[in-house]
Amino acid sequence: MIVDEAFQQGGPGSYELTRVHHTDGYVLRVRVYRDSYAKQSTAVAEVLTPLLTWTIIASSPGSGWHRTTPTTSPDATPLIPVADEVLQRARWILPVPPPFTTPGR
């Protein structure tokens, strides 16, 4: 379940989607940053640890998806498939149930 989502416009050719999910007993954050250059674009999925730090567990370099996104966008729509793919990979990696208790749950 998505509990928070933010979209930001950057400089020319750049924009970013950030989503926070509560799923399978974890808090996951997915960030997709599209820069004007593919090599500076990235997508990462992070898990919130019991020490309240974010740890990257899955990523996708811009070289794999940059060319499928427009230079500008009024919203997060072009980045949603990238975010969904990285989130799915993170969910495959993480054990269910989690080996720890998520803070605040």
Protein described:
It contains one helix and five strands. The protein has 105 residues and is mainly β. It has a five-stranded antiparallel sheet with strand order 1-2-3-4-5, covered by helices on one side. The longest helix is centred in the last third of the chain and has 14 residues. The mean pLDDT is 92.
What key phrases describe this protein's structure?
5-stranded antiparallel beta sheet; 105 residues; mainly beta
Describe this structure in a few short sentences.
The protein is mainly beta. It has one helix at residues 80-93; strands spanning 2-9, 15-23, 26-34, 42-48, 54-61.
The termini sit apart by 15 Å
Q: Low-confidence parts lasting 5 or more residues at pLDDT below 50? A: none
Strand content: 35-45%
Largest sheet: 5 strands, antiparallel
* Mean pLDDT reading: 92
Widest sheet: strand ordering: 1-2-3-4-5
Q: What is the number of strand segments?
A: 5
Rg (C-alpha, Å):
14 Å
- The helix tally amounts to 1
Topology:
Blueprint: E1 2-9, E2 15-23, E3 26-34, E4 42-48, E5 54-61, H1 80-93
Antiparallel strand pairs: 1-2, 2-3, 3-4, 4-5
